[in-house]
Every structure is written in structure tokens, then in C-alpha cells.
Amino acid sequence: MIKNIGSENSVLNQFIAEIRDKDIQADSMRFRRNLERIGEIFAYEISKTFNYTEQEVRTPLGVANIPLCVDKLLLATILRAGLPLHQGILNFFDRADNAFISAYRKYSKDGSFTIKFEYLSSPSLDDKILILNDPMLATGSSMILAYQAMLRKGTPRHTHIVSIIASKEGLVYLRKHMIMDNVTVWVGAIDDELTVKSYIVPGLGDAGDLAYGGKL
Prior knowledge:
The chain has six helices and twelve strands. With about 220 residues, it is α/β, with parallel strands linked by helices. α1 runs antiparallel to α2 and α2 packs across α3. It starts with a strand and ends with a helix.
């Protein structure tokens, strides 16, 4: 299932407009903060899918019965661009376990690239809800690699994949390489094109560089 929460008008549109805007992008702190706020919006929407049980909460004046989430969550992100988005999701799911994945594009002289996986830090995934995020879903290959790496840590009850901007090609790639019966993909926008270097058009550029500065 693919849910495009940007297809309905909301304040999310403002934050996505700002991370796309080449002039606003010059302020890296604002760029990171917008990624974080978008993460909070995704977290709120995803929270509607969880299991809840009514529990008693004692107030100074009595007892309130409130439905509270009973699912165990594990939040995972791909370094480094995913960190602000991950923090936004963590702001809402502050009791969740966390995992971090090191993966990157290794370019050849002809401009082609392969996805290199280097490191994974994660607790057990068994019987947890996995929320795996990366701001951009371009070809989809890094997301599949990250998902497969996470499965080494156990079997999740359900997986939520979060990307702010996805390409149509990347979503097709996910459908071909992932069993979607137990997966929900959440996006904020779907763009039509990829460049020859697999950057999304119109996209926003390199999210990691915009958030934390350029790299060699």
C-alpha cells in the first residue's frame, strides 16, 4: 500500500515547498528543521494504524480512560540524510527503539553507481513495528538494501517505509523487490523523472549535503 499524504492540502505542503526552494535551502538549519517537522507529520499519520488498548490514567481529580498504543516500535534510518527526518518521527515515538544504517552511492567514472552497505546498528526486530525512513526514494535500491539488512535482525509485524519525495520509478522498484503484503509506503510527493545520475526531478537536490554540508 502506498499512501501519499501530500495529495491532500495541509501544512505539510508548506514544509515540502520550503525544502524544495533553492533560496530557502541556503539555510541548512531551516532545512533540517523542516525535515524534522515533516517527520512529525508522518509519525502522526502512521500512529493512526497502530493497536490501542484503553488504560486508566489517574489525574489529581479522578481517573481518565485513554486508548494508548500497545505496539513496540523500531525506528530506522539511512545515514546521513535521514537523521533530521528520523528525529522528527522520534519526537512523537520517543519510547521506540532505534537503528542506524550506513549506506551510500559509490560512483564509477562513467557516472554509474552501486549502493554500498557498510554498517548496521540495531536491536532485535522481532514482533515490532518497523518504521524505516529516508528523505528521498530515487531508484529505490538503497531502501531495498536497508530493508534487507534490517531483516537480519528479526521479523517485524509490519513495516512502514517513509520518504518525503519519491520517484515513480523508485516506487515501481519497491513493488518488484519487496513483498508488499506487510508493508506500507508513506510519501509526501511523487515526482515523475530521474536524471542520468538518478537524482529526482524536480526533487530538491542532495538532502544530505543540504542538511550537513557538501562531501568529497
